[in-house]
Amino acid sequence: MKLFALFMVAAVVVITVIANVGLGATAFAFVHDVPGADLTLHFGLYALLGLAVVAWIWERVLHPGWRLLCVSVLVLLVAVEELSQNFLASRNFSWLDLGSSLAGLLTGVLISAWWVSRRSDSGLDLRA
């Protein structure tokens, strides 16, 4: 799970950098050709991020306060990434993008939390 979490963090960073330097229109041109694809990709990308990071961290951190902090940091990063687009000439802020990203993240977090709790209830070793 650690490698998947690190891959998802790297993927989000790479996609964000590509879009922020003005290469998003060419690199992600296929997104604009399909109606609704932009919001679907926002949702899917952040759902996978939430799944991976939360599963990796929650398997090792049992205190609810640290788990809440983990989710809060992810929500803050998603919000800052979208809000920062107000200050970039090549990007446009969108409430729909922010909502789709947060909905995906929280969906991934909830699925991952459910999965981790089921694994721990079954007596499986989560640290393996």
Summarize the structure.
The protein has 128 residues and is an all-alpha fold. It has six helices and no strands. Helix 4 (37-58) runs antiparallel to helix 5 (64-83) and helix 5 (64-83) runs antiparallel to helix 6.
What does this structure look like?
This protein is mainly alpha-helical and 128 residues long. It has one domain. It has six helices and no strands. The radius of gyration is 16 Å and the shape is elongated.
Whole-number mean pLDDT: 85
Outline type: elongated
Write the element-wise H/E pattern from the N-terminal end onward. HHHHHH
Which stretches of 5+ consecutive residues score pLDDT under 50? none
Helix content: over 70%
Rg, Å, rounded: 16 Å
Structural class: mainly alpha
Task: Please outline the major beta sheet.
Answer: none
Distance between the termini: 10 Å
Topology:
Layout: H1 2-20, H2 24-27, H3 29-33, H4 37-58, H5 64-83, H6 95-121
